[in-house]
Design goal:
It catalyses: [(1->4)-alpha-D-glucosyl](n) + phosphate = [(1->4)-alpha-D-glucosyl](n-1) + alpha-D-glucose 1-phosphate. This is Alpha-1,4 glucan phosphorylase. Belongs to the glycogen phosphorylase family. This protein has about 800 residues and is an alpha/beta fold. The chain has 2 domains: about 1-430 and about 775-780, 3-Layer(aba) Sandwich (Rossmann fold); about 435-770, Glycogen Phosphorylase B (Rossmann fold). It is built from 33 helices and 23 strands. Strands 1, 4, 7, 8, 9, 10, 11, 12, 16 and 17 form a 10-stranded mixed β-sheet that branches. A 6-stranded parallel β-sheet has the order 20-19-18-21-22-23, sandwiched between helices. Helix 26 (about 645-650) links the parallel strand 22 (about 635-640) and strand 23 (about 655-660). The longest helix has 28 residues, at about 25-50. The mean pLDDT is about 95. The structure holds N-(acetylcarbamoyl)-beta-D-glucopyranosylamine. N-(acetylcarbamoyl)-beta-D-glucopyranosylamine binds near residues 113, 292 and 432.
């Protein structure tokens, strides 16, 4: 420990000629980061050597949503409190690191899951390293202006990046048709908890081979002089800001191929250093997990690299097939990647050629198995000039997994139905998880201390199943302690919201929170409608015993997603109305916080009473926010969907607020012919609420029935040429949802009973640790070693 402070002093001195107390926050961040990196260097080297001597796995992901690293790293090293004290002695408040931006190299659930998995693998001593992209600009920052989302570039590296080591010596080249670039690795240490194990996240940055063309410069062609540099750097310039939506752009395909090729070359180099040109051990020593289809061009790329080593196609294919496994994260059609063959041919023709060979091989294999022509047609990897990446991944890999029980069932019965019929042994479920280090230990030290007291040790940090011990100590005293902690976290969140968004909220009100990406299927609009319903009822005196409630929203919309943006504006219009109406302003408060990200989430999930998880049944693959809320004692107000189902199974449905149509109901409604217009016309309360989109209640920027609110209204009631009315079943679920919300509101008044439910949720959250999930991957898919706790 004193070691760290000495190192810090030296770093501050040598880098800035300053004493610790004189450093600016960003200088302190860099110096302390460097000091920590120095401290862990030996363990990191030792871990690398160990992983290199055994079977190991790699997590390939276009996104790693790491969040802020400083607190987490100090926490996992077990020195956060000490560093805090030592800094305090120097008159420095450790909260200065709140000025440092998150590393937001991901969009939402999929990227954050990758980050939780790296954390868990390090702690569970699974030899797993991550491979991804070092975007210059991460996910945009969100401002809210006049109720609208405004996007600003996220230049996260402006604080420098002490956690990454640039490894120039291990750079490789990646070629596209007509362009060859350098891929430079940056290594980030992923520090385990209560272990000396440290894993690595290697992120690739694209750079030019020749940065500057002097000839062109001399000819006064200044743009051409730097053209190669710009063209290369553009590849890793920015993260595509889409969540659950595929964008078939050349640059995106380049990003994917770029990091896959670089990572595979890296793995091959390491392998060759051990075994030379004998590739017979490759699949025995390496497992590659493909995080969604974004890295699926790894399969043909691995085949290509092996063929370059002298292997024939069939041999190379067998190795690739035994090495790769694929995780699916969504059933939404618009998110399933399908690349246009022409585009692929234009960018990576050799890869396209290999995909065609794989596609033919599949057809031969299916013929040999006696599969019908009809089914074979449905399984084509290349069909009508389109490459189906999920099919490629399912065929050319060991396993395919869904991310919650229901989701895996839907893959088997629907999305990948034919595949399940032919290759049933390949399908697995791996319900998602979250790391309890960041999502409880670090963000809720007060609750963590209570848990440690009750469990008898802090071993829950590495074995979350120990939480079940809490089941035996849910007494009046513990409930009171829990309620006191919750109140404290609510006060802290109120202060933070005041500071960040300038809005005052009442910590004695219920905090009913929905934070996640904005998407129609997640149904933030349903939540908005429920608030309007309650607003009208309060005004009519129909809810005399309503406990004051603060509805908190946080959500980024993809910049090109017009409806999502309209929903943000609509929520902000509701906030304006209910927060200022004298009849309701003490009973309802609506806040749309801006720039929801990992660091904001750490303050939010700890303060929630109700966790809104309102997706249309069958559409949210799992959800992981739901788990973060549960672990911190919020009750789920949600549909029977994704991991909500398993949450309710673990904690008991009587301890959650589950509402609405289930998958079977949705199927039935679709079959019968769902008619939202009829429901809307028959129910004056629904009509009044939905019509606030068009009746002048709200200002859609003077659009008066012609703008984005009217478009939302029309999509709900009439549908469009490309989508049936109310595709996401808002109108059907609204009355059920409102009644459930009112029931939760009533229940909250009984503080003891409600607190008891919260504690039961915490006690039964053990399953949702990403430690459990990562060990399942290690056992069932990768067959690597792991820690026995
Ligand atoms: C998300 C799913 O929507 C979410 O339900 C799941 O919890 C999460 O992955 C982790 O598995 N999917 C995505 O973020 N998908 C894309 C393509 O962005």
């Amino acid at each position: 420990m004193s070691n760290i402070m000495e190192k810090l002093e030296l770093t501050a001195q040598s880098m800035y000629c300053k004493k610790i107390e004189e450093l600016t926050p960003s200088e302190l961040h860099l110096s302390l980061g460097k000091a920590v990196m120095g401290e862990i260097a030996d363990n990191w080297e030792a871990s690398k050597a160990k992983h290199n001597s055994e079977r190991r796995a790699y997590y390939f992901s276009a996104e790693f949503l790491m969040g802020r690293m400083m607190y987490n790293n100090l926490y996992c090293l077990g020195i956060l409190d000490d560093v805090k004290k030592m800094l305090k002695k120097k008159g420095v408040d450790i909260n200065v690191f709140e000025d440092i931006d998150d590393a937001a190299l991901g969009n939402g659930g999929l990227g954050r899951l990758a980050a939780c998995y790296l954390d868990s693998a390090a702690t569970m001593e699974v030899p797993l390293d991550g491979y991804g992209i070092r975007y210059k600009y991460g996910l945009f920052k969100q401002l809210i202006k006049d109720g609208y989302q405004v996007e600003v570039a996220d230049d996260w590296q402006r604080f420098d990046d002490p956690w990454c080591l640039r490894r120039e010596d291990e750079a490789v080249t990646v070629s596209f048709k007509g362009q060859t670039v350098k891929a430079v690795p940056y290594d980030m240490a992923v520090i385990g908890c209560k272990t000396t194990n440290i894993n690595t996240l290697r992120l690739w940055q694209a750079e030019a081979i020749n940065e500057f063309d002097f000839q062109a410069f001399n000819n006064t062609e200044y743009n051409r002089a730097v053209q190669e540099k710009n063209d290369a750097e553009n590849i890793t310039k920015v993260l595509y800001p889409n969540d659950n939506k595929y964008e078939g752009k050349v640059l995106r395909l380049k990003q994917q191929y770029f990091f896959c090729s670089a990572s595979l070359q890296d793995i091959m180099r390491r392998y060759k250093a051990k075994h030379g040109n004998d590739f017979s051990f490759f699949a025995k020593e390496n497992a590659i997990q493909l995080n969604d289809t974004h890295p699926v061009c790894s399969i043909p790329e691995l085949v290509r690299l092996l063929m370059n080593e002298g292997m024939n196609f069939d041999e190379a294919f067998e190795i690739a097939r035994k090495t790769c496994a694929y995780t699916n994260h969504t059933v939404l059609g618009e998110a399933l990647e399908k690349w246009h063959a022409d585009l692929m041919m234009q960018v990576i023709p050799e890869i396209y050629h290999i995909i065609c060979l794989i596609a033919n091989k599949l057809q031969e294999e299916l013929t040999a198995k006696g599969i019908s022509e009809d089914m074979k047609a449905k399984m084509r990897i290349v069909d009508a000039n389109t490459v189906h990446m999920a099919r490629l991944a399912t065929y050319a890999g060991t396993y395919v997994n869904g991310v919650a029980k229901l989701h895996t069932e839907i893959l088997k019965d629907d999305v990948l139905k034919e595949w399940y019929q032919v290759y049933p042994e390949r399908f697995q479920n791996k319900t998602n998880g979250i790391t309890q280090r960041r999502w409880l230990g670090l963000c809720n030290p007060e609750l963590a201390a209570l848990i440690t007291e009750k469990v008898g040790s802090d071993n829950w940090l590495i074995d979350l199943s120990l939480l079940s011990k809490l089941n035996d100590c849910i007494d009046a005293k513990t409930i009171t302690k829990f309620n006191t902690i919750k109140k404290k976290k609510k006060v802290q969140l109120a202060e933070y919201i005041k500071k960040m968004d300038g809005v005052e909220i009442n910590p004695d009100s219920i905090y009913d929170i929905q934070v996640k990406r904005l998407h129609e299927y997640k149904r933030q609009l349903l939540n908005a409608f429920s608030i309007m319903t309650i607003y009208f009822r309060i005004k009519e005196g129909k809810l005399p015993n309503w406990t004051p409630t603060t509805f908190i929203f946080g959500a980024k919309a993809a910049p090109g997603y017009a409806r999502a943006k309209a929903i943000i504006k609509y929520i902000n219009e509701i906030a304006d109305l209910v927060n200022n109406d004298p009849d309701t302003k003490d009973k309802l408060k609506v806040v749309f916080i801006s720039n929801y990200n990992v660091s904001y989430a750490e303050k939010i999930v700890v303060a929630a009473d109700l966790s809104e998880q309102t997706s249309t049944a069958g559409l949210e693959a799992s959800g992981t926010g739901n788990m973060k809320f549960m672990l911190n004692g919020a009750l789920t107000l949600g549909t029977y969907d994704g991991a909500n189902i398993e949450i309710a199974e673990c904690a008991g449905e009587e301890n959650e607020y589950i509402f609405g149509a289930r998958v079977e109901d949705i199927e039935r409604l679709k079959k019968e012919g769902y008619d939202p217009k009829k429901l809307y016309e028959a129910n004056p309360e629904i009509k009044k609420v939905v019509d606030t989109l068009i009746d002048g209640t709200f200002d859609d920027d003077g659009a008066q029935g012609e703008g984005s609110f009217a478009e939302l209204h029309n999509a709900l009631i009439n549908g469009t040429s490309w989508q049936e009315a109310d595709h996401y079943f808002h109108i059907y679920d609204l009355p059920l949802y409102v009644e459930t919300k009112i029931r939760a509101n009533k229940d909250y008044a009984n503080r003891k009973e409600f607190g008891k439910k919260c504690l039961i949720n915490i006690a039964n959250a053990g399953k949702f640790s990403s430690d459990r999930a990562i060990v399942e991957y290690a056992k069932d898919i990768w067959h690597t070693s792991y820690r026995k706790v």
